Input
Amino acid sequence: MNKLNLDLAAFMQEYWQKKPTVLRGAYAPFVDPITPDELAGLATEEQVESRLVTFNDGKWKAAHGPFDDYSQLGESHWALLVQATDHWIKPVADLITPFRGLPNWRIDDVMISYSVPGGGVGPHIDQYDVFIIQGSGSRRWRVGANTPAEQFVATPGLLHVNQFEPIIDVELQTGDILYIPPGFPHDGYAITEAMSYSIGYRAPNQQDLFSSFADFLLQEDAGQTRYTDPQRQLTTEPGLVTEQDVNDLRTLMQSLMQDEQLFSKWLGTTLSQAKHELNILPPQEWDLIPDELIPALEAEDELYRLGGLRCLYFPALPDCCFVNGEQLMIPEGGHELAKLMCNSTTLTINELHPFLDDPTLVEWICYWFNQGYWYLASDAEE
Ligand code: SIN
Ligand code: CO
Output
């Protein structure tokens, strides 16, 4: 298994959200968890978001998948990019494991690109932090300073920035990692055929948060407290909205956000939603009844959480957790179990043992399995 050789705490202190850096050999020796053929196979799937970016005769082109024919592509200047590969391929999801000191809600997905010499997506800016792990092959990467840069449409579906003065200009070799915080322009092209694994982190902006909060209020029929003004005095300036009025209206809005439970419930539902489709199998393929759970678990070395599944819990809501956009009530006595399920992506039967004497908790564990949120190691190999 690939192993990260990096002092993550020191990295966080010096670089996280501050400046880009090259982490030489941080994932060396590195073995590709997927082959280019398997990646191309994923890109044939309807549920998987993929893009093909080409650069020919000075022109960029971007097409959206699914793709099942690559015969028109030459031997250089193209890249296939596949999003959320961690949702489908467990060894890819395992690449995130050493980074789990960063919380579940910040992780977006693992995007993989396969590029042939000269292939890349051109100079651009991302709104997320990214660790780009260099798999097989090598790529040259240039990263500029985060001075404001205008974005433009190079071709529909591809936003670019103009060329920039690099503060980093390197050739990444297998096992190297390039970390780029949001807003730093970058451009990477393949020197040889190359596989790159981008672990992306999302940080919502105020617009994202307010619009999602407003949707949540409508859905929950919450936020019905109306403005009142029993102390109103007459005015000689009917056109004026006074400072007091402004403050009262703002306070009315803020009071909703200060409702710890409501606010946490909204955050739980929104932050636990995956942006890309999950590989949830139809329930009948799983159905495990409580009596079968313990023997099934005992026959396994390990249990795995579904790749890309987001599991969260909040101090203000100790009796529930949030999984895949849903609020799950925790049965009595299940708090430690819920934390374990939310904090782990792999479990052994020994870790579950303390909970298996309680039939309600056994039933609850079954529920997680039957939803497809966890699966047995033996099912992973099929
Ligand atoms: C790529 O792998 O070509 C794109 C990754 C990125 O620039 O974010
Ligand atoms: Co980028």
The pocket of succinic acid (ligand 1) is lined by residues 79, 113, 120-121, 126, 130, 132, 186, 188, 196, 198 (CB under 6 Å).
